[in-house]
What does this fold into?
Amino acid sequence: MPSNSAAIVTGLTTAALATVGFLAYQASATVPATLGQPRTSSSPGIAAAKAPRDTRHPAALPAGSGTGERVVYSVDDDRVWLVGAGDKVKRTFEVVPGTVDPAPGSYWVTSRSNSVTGTDGTPIEHVVRFATAGNVTIGFSAAVAAATAPADPAVKTGGIRESREDGAAMWTFATIGQKVIVIR
It folds into this structure.
């Protein structure tokens, strides 16, 4: 009798895992069209013009970059801030952008992949996607083997490349639904 019970438990576990996987796929396929798109009406806390930077402390969190826990990405400064509770900067680092920038605004992390091949053919890890521009998906990632080099201007890429250490920090911080604020 015990081997029969083990077979039943194994079968039920397999069925449960398959069901959860299918439901997760369905959920990811039905993300609202507005999720991952910038808000065009009002984006509280986001300055329309470029916020003045602290030239004495270039890594300081820019004014007008929102409030609360969030990722802040400056397309002009090629820099990211991971901002925790109480608007405390947990980490800041420079990035190498792709050839397509997201529009300034509020976004949310819509999907993640631990390890994939980028649109430029580079193996990447810790991919955190949050926007689209035209048909180009935009997200943060880290190249697995090579140092981060500027993107080939002939290829439309939305990969914002980080170091592997910064990519690991982003992966831990920016889970599905995390707010991402893009500023100039």
